[in-house]
């Protein structure tokens, strides 16, 4: 009876799950795959799911992956979403480096500051994509980008929740 009480139950004393280092990257790739769903709209108002997941993971855990992982994840996103090859590679790498600077400059962050940082990064990314599209011969008025930006900023807390839930699961908490 005493021996049964001393035996660990469930995941206690076992440490993190196997493959915990790739779960953040897999979740970003799976979110990028959502762009392949057969949804037809007159206007693009959908957020860039992979980018939102990348920002959510990076704001949640700076140690989840090194900054250079943004390049291969961006390449996969470019392949899956049909964006010009190299756009997400450069943009996501720049965003990861910018978040490293934010981490060094801030002493503490709360929920609202992280949401504001994410909103700034989303606006930066959407503006850069709009500019690249204009250079590529698809001039769209910037006001057409506003619904996508608003939806992305408002959807960020959902992605932060998904990332934190996955983080708790992968670490066995």
TrEMBL record:
PROSITE patterns, per this entry? PROKAR_LIPOPROTEIN
How this chain sits in the membrane, per its record, is: Multi-pass membrane protein
Q: What is its main location?
A: membrane
| Source organism, top-level taxon | Bacteria
Location of this chain's protein in the cell: Cell membrane
Instruction: Provide the protein name.
Output: Rod shape-determining protein MreD
Q: InterPro entries, per this entry?
A: Cell_shape_determining_MreD
Please give the organism. Sphingomonas alba
Asked whether the keyword Cell membrane is assigned, the reply is yes
Mark the transmembrane ranges: 20-40, 79-99, 111-133, 145-163
The family classification in the record reads: Belongs to the MreD family.
> Transmembrane helix as a keyword?
yes
Q: What is the lineage of its organism?
A: Bacteria, Pseudomonadati, Pseudomonadota, Alphaproteobacteria, Sphingomonadales
The record's keywords, sorted A to Z, are: Cell membrane, Cell shape, Membrane, Transmembrane, Transmembrane helix
């Amino acid at each position: 009876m005493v021996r049964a009480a001393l035996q660990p139950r469930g995941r206690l004393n076992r440490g993190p799950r196997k493959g915990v280092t790739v779960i953040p990257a897999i979740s970003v790739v799976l979110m990028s795959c959502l762009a392949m769903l057969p949804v037809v709209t007159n206007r693009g108002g959908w957020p860039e799911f992979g980018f939102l997941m990348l920002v959510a993971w990076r704001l949640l855990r700076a140690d989840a992956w090194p900054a250079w992982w943004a390049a291969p994840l961006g390449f996969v996103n470019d392949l899956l979403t049909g964006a010009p090859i190299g756009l997400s590679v450069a943009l996501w790498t720049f965003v990861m480096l910018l978040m490293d600077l934010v981490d060094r400059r801030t002493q503490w962050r709360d929920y609202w500051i992280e949401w504001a940082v994410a909103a700034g990064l989303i606006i930066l990314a959407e503006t850069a994509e709009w500019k690249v599209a204009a250079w590529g011969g698809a001039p769209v008025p910037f006001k057409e980008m506003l619904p996508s930006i608003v939806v992305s900023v408002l959807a960020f807390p959902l992605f932060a929740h998904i990332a934190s839930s996955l983080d708790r699961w992968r670490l066995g908490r």
